[in-house]
Amino acid sequence: MARVLSAETLDAIAGARARYPSAQSALLPALHAAQAQAGYLPEPVLADVADALGVPVTEVAAVATFYSMFHTAPVGRHVVRVCTNLSCHLNGADGVMDRLCRQLGIRPGQTTPDGRVSLEVAECLAACEEAPVLLADADRVARVTPDAADELVRRLRADA
Amino acid sequence: MPTPERIVSKHLGPERAAIDAYLSTGGYRAAARALKELTPDQIIEMVEQAGLRGRGGAGFPTARKWKLTPKREGETRYLVVNADEGEPGTFKDRTLIEGDPHAILEGSLITAYTNGVHHAYIYLRGEFFLGYERLSRALAEAYARGYFGTNILGTGFDLELTIHRGAGAYICGEETALLESLEGRRAFPRAKPPYYPAVRGLYDRPTVLNNAETMAHIPYIVGMGPEAYKAAGPPILYSVSGHVVRPGVKELPIGTSLREIIYEHAGGLRPGRTLKAVYPGGSSSAILLPEHLDTPADFDSLAKIGTMLGSSAIIVMDDTTNIPAVIARAVDFYRDESCGKCTPCREGTVWLSQIFARILGGHGRMEDLDLLDGISRNMTGTCFCLLGESVPPSLRASLKYFRDEYVRLIEAGSRRAEAEPAARSAHGAGARS
To answer: Do residue A123 and residue B336 have CB atoms under 8 angstroms apart?
Structure first.
């Protein structure tokens, strides 16, 4: 019996499982699906994924903790990932990151106390022609300025 | 100089995920011809004649890779397309994934047919949310029109294609780490030699592992014929970014000079600025100086001057650039992305990062420069995979070309410390622990 995951998520995991000759191959898609439902990946969710795929829970945890997009602790409702890599660095990403930190009152890797926004440093987002760039959840924001960062924070805060 | 006609990046746009948009410009015609009229050997011959070299970074001849993949009767083979683009400065694959996803799918179809593959995987970077949306839509429409699935175009050829999303790990761009990740494990690279993915890849089966841009070239080679393709360049996609007026993907004949790429196709530098340094092939390549600008940006010419074409990502830095700060940023990136499997990479990147923090924080010592160089030399050739090997080239080039900048930072720090001796001893104790 699943502890946390919904029938819909378990269906998605079963669908992913059918695309691979080995159950463990479906682990990344399964963790994506689980996180999409649960918000993050606490132990009961990892146990559900392990059961759904017949993979040891230690293996599931090992994988979940390796990849930066999987969160084993709660994250904000919105995740802002800021690229500070070479092309973005050359085009003012540090100023954007500083502004976001100041506006949100947190450091990269932290979540605002109201649980609304998590701030992360992204690896190169492969959009260097739009530098500096960030991802606000799934949306890529091009040529971000500190003022545009202010606007983004306002928007994420206003979103109920 | 006139810009040659673009081929691979001719049709880019949000509408291209729709199969009708792709079909309207001749899409899937090459695949239909390949499956109906050409034998696998004929296709390999065409790709060989076209001279296509893998666009993932290593530049391995694509046809040779396909020939190295054993084609034993009854044995399962896989195609894995590396769309885990993440080399800093590189964005050509993402541009194609978002802007012409069917070209990658059609290339994958032809490649699978050529290599007797019936299940292909595209390993897509997890952060490519828009790319996933477009590629998924393209794939669904291609399935619906019979370009994937069973009995494709009535030829009896079957192919399943699955998009596998990564989850945030630069190491997955390394092909054997990618396979580990595709098998649902932590992305630790595998030992090679003795076995390369061509022989023992996914699930220990022979596996054709090609880059996403490489796939997008295949339909044009088959469609135009290798001679016309070669006459049109042969084309490659340069990713140009940094301090240029018109950054972007520039499709140009391979071997176009860095000067022409930067000044004619990327609009040159911002007004009043002069060029300081250039990465010619992503952050893993050794940086170059203005005096190197007339070098053709191709595999052999760049190798000859001690750097590489790599993923053909040109990052331009003007005279406002703080070179040690840029190199420090690259070092910190590799430190964060090191998988931790081997010591030179895991420890080396941490040590380098600590030394950079000291120098940039105004607490550097002259002997730090020898330390940076020594650690870099000890990492060269000793790391388990290319991630760690990517750190020393640009660092050592920066020490060679811009030593004075490091020295100035260290001297400025020392002068400040003499003015405030207490601050120095307090920090020095912490920094060295």
So the answer is: yes
